[in-house]
Amino acid sequence: MPLPLFALMLCVFSVGTAESVIAGILPQIAGDLGVSVPAVGLLVSGYALTVVVGGPFVTLLTGRIPRKTLVVGLIGVFVLGNLIAAVADDYSMLLLGRVVSALAHCTMFAVCIVIANGLVGAGRQGSAVARVALGLNLATVAGVPIGTVLGQEFGWRSTFWAVLLMSVVSALLVVLFVPAVPGPSSAGAIGELAVLRDRRVRLAIMMTVFASAGAFAAYTFIAPLLTEVGGFGPVALTVLLFVFGGGSIVGNLVGGRLVDRALLPALVSTVAALTLSLLFLAVAASVRPLAALAVLLFGASYFSIIPALQARIMTAAGARAPTLALAVNISAFNIGIGGGAWLGGRVIDAGLGYRVVVLVGAAVVVVSVFIAIRELMAARNRDTSPVARKTELV
């Protein structure tokens, strides 16, 4: 991987690890600060809420800043948040640190994707997005487990110090290897918000919400599905979660390659594959070898949609406000994740079982499939120039 893309990927790895690692050190934080585990759980939802609500506003406010400068500045904010968390002596201070960190999350991810897109030649944007987004996969597969072990062995503060150190390293790599990229010529906040009036941008955001909601309705309850329906033990469950993570890495990279070949067909095929993988998981959950294969395919298909959706957003937004459109789309991912987890919980509360949760998730993703097919057909029927047609179809 070229060093500029590696530096950007490392930034995403840092924020991805920080977002999720709290789940692994909840008991240590609760015991040390003298608060309940559910209260510590609010550190996760508070972070996500800040990303959803604050992220697009931060993007609007920083739209005129040159992008390399902006990434370094956002890492500085992220480092500050983790520093506050690492030295926090009470729950309120720790929550403040999480909120400060989350303010940088959305815009940093979006700007890293925009920079990566500009560093590669035409026809390679999908792979560039996939390489940067690989940081999220590695955060799930490596960052969170390592952060959890650090917290268990050396105290939960060591986890935040480790994330802080990794963030500093990523900032240094950005300074050394990422070329200067000017900020977009902006017509101000109102002018940038106009990008959200574009039908294609709005539909892409809708696809993101429904695809992530369907996936996380199933993923939130994948552990009890595999243990209670599949009969897997704790060790096997851990292995299967690593299988999911491995599939996510493969799917992310394959999705990027598919986008390079043909954007809208790739979008249709990836969301359709996610639907089919969920249906397969629901049917095969009680047959262990097939369940393991289904978990692998689920991880691969879900993460294959990320390059496709982000590339669609950038294509639809064009040069007007791609960073804002991406920031809103990242918020949409978080909305979908939260909504999917809530929906899955309601299905469980209704006594319908874990297989039905997965089937409901597949039904939700179907909405994204229909939108993607509609967009593909509209692009094929649209009277565009050969260049514009190639951008969307080839």
Q: CATH superfamily of the largest domain, please?
A: MFS general substrate transporter like domains
Gyration radius, to the nearest Å?
A: 20 Å
User: What is the mean pLDDT?
Assistant: 83
- Could you give a short account of the major beta sheet? none
Helix content: over 70%
The name CATH uses for the topology of the largest domain is Growth Hormone, Chain: A
CATH class of the largest domain: Mainly Alpha
Beta-strand content estimate: under 5%
Q: Tell me the count of domains.
A: 2
- The succession of helices and strands, N to C, reads HHHHHHHHHHHHHHHH
Structural class: mainly alpha
Euclidean distance between termini CA atoms:
25 Å
What would you say the CATH architecture of the largest domain is? Up-down Bundle
Shape summary: globular
Please count the beta strands (DSSP E, at least 2 residues each): 0
What are the segments in which pLDDT stays under 50 over at least 5 consecutive residues? 387-394
Give the count of helical stretches.
16
Subcellular location: Cell membrane
Pfam families: MFS_1
InterPro entries: MFS, MFS_dom, MFS_Efflux_Transporters, MFS_trans_sf
Domain Major facilitator superfamily (MFS) profile: 4-380
Features:
single chain, 394 residues, mainly alpha, Growth Hormone, Chain: A, 2 domains, 16 helices, 84% helix
